[in-house]
Amino acid sequence: MDSASTLILASALIIIMLGMGLSLEALDFKRIFQHPKAIFIGLINQLILLPLVGFGIAVLFPMQPEIAVGIMILAACPGGPTSNLISFMAKADLALSVTLTAFSSLITILTIPFIINFALTYFMEAGTVIELNVVETIAQIFIIVVIPITIGMLVRRFQPSFAQRMGKPVRVASGVVLALIIVGLVIKERAHFVEYFADAGLATFLLNLISMLLGYMSARVFVLSRRQATSIAIESGIQNGTLAITIAVVLLGNTAFAIPAAVYSLIMFITGGIVVYLSHRK
Predict the structure, then answer these.
(1) Could you give phi then psi for residue 125, rounded to 5 degrees?
(2) Is the pTM of this model over 0.90?
């Protein structure tokens, strides 16, 4: 993508993260002391099990190296703001969902560069490896994730009525932006998209399905409530696709790395809808 498209993509992510901040408050970060077991299990699923599942799928399934790297980028990313909306619609534990999104967004700033560098070294051919500068990458992700979230939280703290009014429009805008980004990627990679989709379709579906099942079952094994287990499943399976695409395009400069995130973003809305449906049946 050209510099203008890259700037637009980074700006869109900043706006989305600002919207997430409008839904957060300091209490969300205090909940780790109030419900440590649920949050600990959720973070283990998000930060450890998800990348392991992603790596297993990338190794076991035949796919282009770019798709394998894209799978790992996606697995390294935190849960997205959409997970909070789906948790609300599924009548899950919304407070737990918001808390997990907030914590995973902060922690993955440190883990993303290492996971992606490992993936680039493992899957890409010699001579084509692009190594991320760890410190520089952490700083860049900090700018486009943490600073907008902090600003959003400050707005909510001092202008709560404004934050409440802006909540829904920002969520709608986030969905529209993600849809436009996916369309742009399809157009950009149209010559190879069918081949990439064939590579990424089943792999991303399995990543989504396995991560959600692991999240739910691990929560139930540790005697968490059904609502908490549902939130952890959603947080494990609804990823921040926009961040994954931004990393692929802005930081790595390769739109092919973003294809799994684009495909996954379509799949996770379908599986998220199924979770909402099943929750309402119960």
Answers:
(1) -70, 155
(2) no
